[in-house]
Amino acid sequence: MKLVVANLTSGGLSGGYRKYLSRLMPLLAADPRISRMTVFMPGDLRLDGVDARPWDPGDARRGYASLIRDVAALAPDLVFVPTARYVAFGSVPVVTMVRNMEPLAVPFGGNTLREGLKNIARAWEARRASRRAARVIAVSEYVRRYLLEHWHIDERKVGRAYHGIDRPARQDGRPAGAPPALFTAGSIRPARGLEDAIRALPLVDRGVRLVVAGRVDPGCEGYAAALQRTAAGLGVADRITWRGQLDEPAMAEAFRTASVFVMTSRAEACPNTVLEAMMSGCASISVDHPPMPEIFDRAARYYPAGDATALAAHVRSLLDDAAARRELGAAGAARALSFSWEASRDQTIAELEKALA
Fold first, then answer.
1. Fewer Cβ within 10 Å of end Cβ, the chain: N or C?
2. What is the pTM of this model?
3. Domain residues for 305?
4. Per-residue DSSP letters for 205-270?
């Protein structure tokens, strides 16, 4: 199979998408089922062993004329667009992927009007791409069911390929005597639901700290300020540490030193932070809506989104029971073994082959 991967973005790459590209693309390029692979992408991300070529995002305003010309010169059998956008490359089949559920499930959801309208446009483009593509890859069963039930995409052309997770180097356990701490991670935007964790803090008491990793997304500065006001009003501002965006070693250390990982997000597809939390062996508490139960399975305790009282009750219970924390962490580590980049490669190639067939 001669494959072109076209990353149709406006230039920015989220941390999760960077990891997806840096882990999966080299595996695809090295697989004997793919005879030649070329990746077009903006930015400066380097992919080991991959023929990666720069692409000017401004070409979108010209109807992708340069990209279409460059792809045609390669004469691929298939074009894979992982960003839920559609471009016609002549008679070459196109496979798209849906991996961002916020524009689909909660386009406004506390966002500014401008950001909400952007989400509407993103959802429109994802729906258009899903309808026109030869095949659609969903990154979880939740996403697949959404495409079938809400957009009525032909079931015969929608498949699934989960993201993978790295196997970490062996680490020592949590430092003895360290104060109890909750950890959560992800871009700071309304869909993350971080207010749940902040409102749970005064109900937990006991000097428990909350550590938040993640940058404030552009356009979400008002939400970040509202979180600060909520924390100050509840008297817990001094118990929250805002770490900003962490690199991989710092994330691994944050999981290692956390008592409990908390997932509060309202809109996810196949969240990398959940996979990382499980692989780290961190005891987890999560919102109960999809895809969390699909990903965590029995490796988390669940609470209804927005119910800080229920979240706090789970936190108190786990902090009081070290054996329960260890058991939940071990269940997560075992569950994480179901997700690997090698499995993601095989699932992705299977979907690409179906598109050719």
1. C
2. 0.92
3. 181-336
4. -TT-EEEEE-PBPTT-HHHHHHHHHHHHHHT-GGGEEEEES--HHHHHHHHHH-SEEEE--S--SS
